[in-house]
Amino acid sequence: MQNDLLKLVETQRELRKRIGYNESDRHEKLVLAFLVELGELANETRCFKFWSKKPPSEKKKILEEYSDGFHFVLELGIEIEYDFSEPITISDVPNTTIEQHFLKLSQQICSMRYWSKGGNAFFYKHLLDDYIKLGMLLGFSWEEIVQAYYKKNEINHTRQESGY
């Protein structure tokens, strides 16, 4: 898992460099973008829509949305200069509902607005761990998450070429 994560971070750094946005509002925009992506993911799972009988989207669509958020998890870690060489160990899937996990992640993401470079490594590590756990709660393996990340990263590079 650690080697995969380090490769994912390097791949994200390449995309970051290609995008090239380095304005002073970058951090705040990343936090907001991550919140939006988390909301889009929740919407596709329909986990909170107690008023609706419509089923969740297909697993493929949910994984794609999850992958969008994973890009921002990595991006925010890069932004605060997190040391990704720190070993990560993902504990078991949490004994919470998906809704509770979405709410926990939303709180963690909002707190990131106030984080600065070089700080908050402890909290970022928990955010990264909890986002990976969300993928597990949604039924994805680590291998599926990694593959989906690379697939979406390729799409993101193509979008940069076309002026998306």
Automatic annotation (TrEMBL):
One of its GO terms (molecular function) is dUTP diphosphatase activity. The keyword Ribonucleoprotein does not apply. SUPFAM superfamilies: all-alpha NTP pyrophosphatases. Its EC number is 3.6.1.23. The keyword Hydrolase applies. Keywords: Hydrolase. Coiled coil: none annotated. InterPro entries: dUTPase/dCTP_pyrophosphatase, UCP030140. This is dUTP diphosphatase. It comes from Bacillus spongiae.
